[in-house]
């Protein structure tokens, strides 16, 4: 037996990890059936929070028709210690029904059953599929059982009809007597477009083959119908065909249903445009035609900018109205030159055919961008939307239809990064950028997990006489990728969500280091760390910061966090609440890169922020009259709002003097020191600053 079985703490950690990280929902109930613990997956699937679960009994969320059975099962497991597996339906917090497969086992401690634990598998989709299959089966059986089949028998040359059932009249519109009087009647009813094919197949009967055909007729009333015909030859003892027996079924409704299903499978329900599946078919067909005609194809990957705001603000019903209007506009603009498809959400792909030059594709893209901005009226208000487009060209960029769409998507991403409301033509370095982005993401995930290759450097903040604080700046030197600029990997961390654990690592590491500094130095400079907007938006951001300070025993009065102006674009009331919590804890707040974002002066006056940091772009161009006016304004505004001011990026004595004359008293930049490793901080503190 492995030694770990002797270590109860280790075993508990393993079991806890298995429980919490299990991809399936897990729970534990006490003897009364009340939830004791649940894992995150259980919360995700039901919509209830941990706090809400702690007040619920299992029976509270079970669908009414299952409760009696579930109570009996619970008692059985609790009393007899048996393991039970069963299917049950529970109610999501929103009221939605969730079908589950549950395995329940007793919780045994010291030989006593204290409760019941369960692991759950979501079978909602499986049950829905089973029900849908059953419904479809019943529908098909009903259709089949109600089809009237025409049964007939004639001689080989169709000169005499021996037998014809009454159902033939319902199908063809002609009576039994009419068929017997004119055995060739059925041939004249075949649709002209199908007649040659059907009659040509009759020769197979002479060879002894059974033929099964589907073709159209025009009945006695002028109706076009699809029929399924099954004809088999009957032989005499000498091997000669003496008779033909056949069955004919009206499959018109079946054909209509099939065509409808095909339409649904290949058509976007909202806009009635071809969906992605149909587009891929059309693209393959267009590639073949383009090769034959030696022409090009253009793929325009079209995406509305900030469409999520429409859905979030006006609701999905109005969002759907906007999408339908956009679809109509795209079709009007593209016309007969191509195919417009909707591939998901607010994304459309336009396939331009018979393209003679790339310039024509660019012209069409620009036209789309120009026309899409026309206002859309919803109720009494009008809304203007912009769009970004990525373009790829066949065969210039690739001969692979799938890659053609991928490359257009990559070009779309480039257009989004370039400020949106524009188009970009695919370039090979777009693919390289995607690959590098993925490499960085994987390497960063590993670096955070293993706590390796990430370091902090610290740049002093001075009041021209002494160092008053240090800003912690993240550095990453990956073993494979080498040194990476924060400007490259921080956006990737933001997008992927890794900024959350990364930001916590920075705060924890810096606080731990500066505690050591305070123990071994007479100086007490404050510590400033950057907190991303995404990190600050987290509901538990403030509590997590407090927890880190408690764990590192760091004095909150010595910590400042730096936020960017983008926080003001979110829920300002909620932001103010968090900032007040920080201030109540003694943590100071700096507004970083001030002047480059979206600050609203109406909010700036009420935000509990201690200090504004002038962005270095203004400082480096301070000799420009316009930039100098901005810096002067920021300093005067900070003074009037009784907030501190720090100038970033001070590299020259002339800049320093200019800033002093404008009233700025705190500075940060290479004129004083570049960011240095923690080990070099004591040397900086022990030197007098003469700049």
From TrEMBL:
What residue stretches are annotated with the PAS domain? 11-81, 136-209
Which Pfam families does the UniProt entry name for this protein?
A: EAL (PF00563), GGDEF (PF00990), PAS_3 (PF08447), PAS_9 (PF13426)
Domain of life, per UniProt, equals Bacteria
* Domain GGDEF residues, every copy: 295-428
Write down the InterPro entries for this protein, in alphabetical order.
Biofilm_reg_signaling, EAL_dom, EAL_sf, GGDEF_dom, Nucleotide_cyclase, PAC, PAS, PAS-assoc_C
**TM spans (from-to):** none
CDD domains named among the record's database cross-references: EAL, GGDEF, PAS
Q: Sorted alphabetically, which SMART domains does this protein's record hold?
A: EAL, GGDEF, PAC, PAS
Q: Which residues form the PAC domain?
A: 84-135, 211-263
| Sequence ranges assigned to domain EAL in this UniProt record | 437-689
* Protein's name in the database: PAS domain S-box-containing protein/diguanylate cyclase (GGDEF)-like protein
